[in-house]
Each structure stands twice: as structure tokens, then as C-alpha cells.
């Protein structure tokens, strides 16, 4: 297992950039900045791609240019183009079941009602990719979810989400070195 591609889920365009649903995209934008590289749009792949390395680990970052519920179209195109297997992909996404300030790293699983993950599993034909789940909290009632994820978090929540993103970026080198358990332990013990 070697993570070769990190995908940040979100919706494209400035009007969505500050929404909770774009937390995954915020993470890869931070990595892009840390790697001192920039994203280039690839229309054929329906994604923006950046290349660089973290601790001598070569890496591609991708942000789908599709809407969240069609993320799988872009991720499949990118993974096929660069010949990257699902188990070598880390998908970063917002997570309703975790409060702001919490992040969890896991391998495989279902979509848990997340439309981006549902699309990925469908298009990749696999659920064997890694996930970094960034907590955004839950509005309390399922009928309020779609409105909630498409809104900007409060200043306090934003600060908590950003802290979780920073802590996740600190744990990432361990995952890239193949030390998944150590990465999980570090991340999960720092963010309780």
C-alpha cells in the first residue's frame, strides 16, 4: 500500500468554496500550499491536479471539477489515467457523524449516505480506498442535512475544522510511509 493520490471532495466554483461540504477540498488545498505547487485544470479528467512530494513521497492531489454527487466520474478518470489502484487513493471528505474538530482515518467501508462516496464506490467499482473523514457536525434532523452542508460553518466551527485539517496534515507522512496504524493513533489521540 502506497498512497499515490489524495482527492479532496467538494463542489466546484466560488459560490461553494466556503461550504462545509468542501472540507475535503480545503485539506488538499492546504497540502498543495505546503508542497509549494499549484493546481492545473485537466478538462479530460474533470479534475484539477497538482503534483509534488511530502517527505520524499511523490504524490498527486486532485480536486474534482464535477459536483459532489458525480465525484466518482473524475476520480475514476484520474485513477485510470495515472494507473492508480483504489487502495492507493486517499479520499478526504466532510463527515456529518463527527463533530467539528474531529478527524478520523480509515480504510474501506460503505458510503454512509455521503453522495460523494456513493459516486466513488459506484464508478471505481471498489470501496477499498482510504478515507480521511473531517467532522462538520450534524444539524440534528436528516431533513436539514442538504441545506446544512451547503452553508458556511460558524467562525467557531471553522476554527475547529481548520485545526483538524492541520492535525491531519501532520499525521499524513506516517500514512504515506505505510505506517497506517501509527497515523491513525497519532490523529485519533490528538483529536478527541
- Per DSSP E runs of 2 or more residues, the count of β-strands stands at 7
**Percent of residues in β-strands:** 15-25%
Summed up, the domain count is 1
Cα-to-Cα separation, first versus last residue: 27 Å
Q: From the helix content, strand content and strand pairing, which structural class follows?
A: alpha/beta
> How many helices does DSSP assign?
6
Q: How would you name the CATH homologous superfamily?
A: Peptidyl-tRNA hydrolase
Shape: globular
Mean pLDDT: 93
Approximately how much helix is present in the residues? 25-40%
- Using only CA atoms, what is the Rg? 15 Å
Low-pLDDT windows of residues = none
From N to C, what is the helix and strand string? EHEEEHEEHEHHH
Main beta sheet: strand number and arrangement? Answer: 7 strands, mixed
CATH class: Alpha Beta
Strand order of the largest sheet: 2-3-4-1-5-7-6
CATH architecture classification name: 3-Layer(aba) Sandwich
Please provide a written account of the structure:
- The protein has 192 residues and is an alpha/beta fold.
- It has a single domain (5-190), classed as 3-Layer(aba) Sandwich (Rossmann fold), CATH 3.40.50.
- The protein has helices at 23-34, 71-81, 115-124, 145-149, 155-176, 180-190, and strands spanning 5-8, 40-42, 47-54, 57-64, 89-95, 103-107, 130-135.
- The protein has a 7-stranded mixed beta sheet, sandwiched between helices.
- Strand 3 (47-54) and strand 4 form a beta hairpin.
- Helix 2 (71-81) packs across helix 3.
- It is globular and about 40 Å long.
